[in-house]
Amino acid sequence: MSASYLLRRLLTILLTVLIVSMLVFGITQVLPADAAVMLLGENATPEQLVAVRARLGLDLPVWQQYLGWIGHVLRGDFGTSLETGLPVGEVMFTALGRSLLLALLSLLLMLVVAIPLGVVAALRRGRASDLGIGLASYVGVSMPEFVTATLVLITLGNPAFGLLPSTGYVPLTEDFRGGLARLVLPVLTVSVILVAHVVRMVRSEMVDVLGTDYVRAARMKGLSRPRILFRHALRNALLPTITVVALDIGYLLGGIIVVEEIFAFPGIGRALIVAIQQRDLPSIQAGALIMAATYALANLLADLAYAALDKRIRYA
Amino acid sequence: MPDTLRHLLRTPQGLIGGGIILMALLAAIGGPAIAPFDPEAFHVRARFSGPGATYWLGTDQFGRDILSRILAGARSTLFLAVAATALGTVAGAVLGTLSAFIGGWVDEALMRIVDAVMAIPNLLFTLLIVTVLGASGVNALIALGIAFTPGMARITRSVALAVRQQDFVNAAVARGETGSFIVLREMLPNVVGPIIVEATIRVAFAVMGLATLSFLGLGAQPPSSEWGLMVAEARPYLFRNAWMMLFPGLAIALVAVAFNLFGDGLRDALNPRA
Questions:
Q1: Among A186, B78, B175, B186, which one is most buried in terms of CB atoms within 10 A?
Q2: Which domains, ranges and CATH numbers included, belong to chain A?
């Protein structure tokens, strides 16, 4: 991997974040809500409003406001929430931490489930188990996250059955078992969606690899079946899968927004939805920027991991 | 074209997907006419009923017939999804073809921007656009269309670059045709195939994306019976009458599966080698 490739990727990330920042800042300009009115309430006198607008810099030209805002953001100051008065940067980063926990656990569960399923489907190609897995993944891909989530909620999370707590969040450091129990349903939902994507990929890659000459050669050499499968075939089949997983980080984020909302999980996705519903501008801006930057970085990391795992890949 | 259609219907994906889409289209066109009840009529004595002989798929919190509402909602759901896809496809196709045709630094700059926009998670991007535009079904359509544009632009560009090398384009350039003539009349018709495949699969994403926006309260607004909104309205009664969310959810999934299948079938039919 060349330094120039890395540099170009970092520049693209910068451009992405810049576009998001403009989009996000654009919202402030078109929303009917006036930040000064929101702060002072409906009964503020015109003089008070003018004073607050001057203090917030709302009387400056748009580009000066944008530059001022982005300058603060670069110094880590995202402003304070119009709803709660708390610093939004801190709030959003705490929420991001919880979301990352949810995301990582889901990815882990996905890998544990999707790879064996994909391999089984490839080995039993055309038989009932393959068709079943194929059909299930098709349905899984085609179900919007909120439908999957509500299905999980009314089955496993139904208070009538009393299996698992359906909503909320408890820090693992406070109550490990209770916290874990509350993570089960959201993690399960997110991974269902991911599994559906990845199984199809693992299967088709595995089918391709099993048909290659080197696998045939290994078989003719008399190597044991597990050895061929795990040492020779699976390793190569998994490489393209990593790309799909990287692409899935996007679905993961989208899925997490919805899943967090449904299971009342206080991650960054739910924080963003709440901020949008309350028209809490600093929170919308911080949430969207942090999410976009996280996603871009995660994508880069996935690409780097791919290159590290497959020595044949050279990014120019 | 009839040849493609025959190929398409011979693949199981194309046949099943096409069948379901046809049914959904019938519901979208004749929905209110074939619905057993008025989708807005309250049946106060039959609130929260499960599937049964009178109300086949049960009723909601006002006693409205769910089957009738799903049939009536097919129109807005399908129309919004197809329109959003069409918007994104046309915008992306024009942008991509233009980018490939002009080339040089314009192409480079456009593609960098496309990269940057595509690196924004799709749902986040549409959420932000809807926040700017305001929550409504039509704005959700526009947001989704905009969100689809960069992806379609990139696909079109790569196909168009291949077409750009063809002799008939060079001939048109040599004839001294204008840029817009070459893009619209010579290049676009030849990049249509792969774009149609991609667009068909995108309709599935559009159905899901629009339903998700409605579900979050940022898409279609009550009293619409858009399917995502129906699921959202069923949420408070989830544990009381699960059928209320199950059937519209199923309808969304079914239509999305259908477009996925149909798109896959179309790809096979247009490209028999793969």
A1: A186
A2: 3-74 (no CATH), 89-309 (1.10.3720.10)
Q: Look up residue A251 and give its amino acid.
A: Y
Question: A253, B124: Cβ pair inside 8 Å?
Answer: yes
Interface membership of A26 toward B (CB under 8 Å): yes
Return the exposure string of A200-229: e unless at least 16 CB atoms fall within 10 Å of the residue's CB, then b. bbbbbbbbebbeeeebeebeeeeeeeeebb
**Residue A161 backbone dihedrals phi, psi, to 5 degrees:** -90, -25
How far is residue A55's CA from residue B148's CA, in Å, rounded to a whole number? 40
Number of separate domains in chain B:
1
Describe the crossing of helices B66-102 and B243-270 by its angle, rounded to 10 degrees.
40
CB of B226 within 8 A of CB of B208?
no
Helix ranges (H only) for chain B are 2-10, 12-34, 66-102, 104-118, 122-133, 137-164, 167-175, 179-181, 188-215, 227-234, 243-270
Below-70 pLDDT ranges, chain A: 1, 28, 30-42, 56-57, 162, 166-167, 243, 246-247, 250, 310-316
**Owner of token pair 């990815």:** A107
Q: Check CB contact under 8 Å for B127 and A272.
A: yes
Q: Which domain holds residue B98?
A: 2-46+53-270
Tokens (6 digits) for B76: 């807005």
pLDDT in tens, A12-26: 888 888 888 887 887
Q: Which CATH number belongs to the domain containing residue B91 in this structure?
A: 1.10.3720.10
Please tell me the distance from the alpha carbon of residue B248 to that of residue B44, in angstroms, as a whole number.
Answer: 21
Write down the pLDDT at residue A119.
Answer: 86
Maximal CA-CA distance, chain B: 76
Q: Report the residue of chain B nearest A274, measured CA to CA.
A: B216
Chain A, 105 to 134: residues with Cβ < 8 Å from chain B are: none
The rounded distance, in Å, linking the Cα atoms of B62 and A279 is 31
263-282 of A, contacting B, C-beta below 8 A: 272-273, 276-277
Of A15, A139, A296, Cβ closest to residue B253? A139
Judged by a CB distance cut-off of 8 A, whether residue A289 touches chain B is no
ipTM field = 0.78
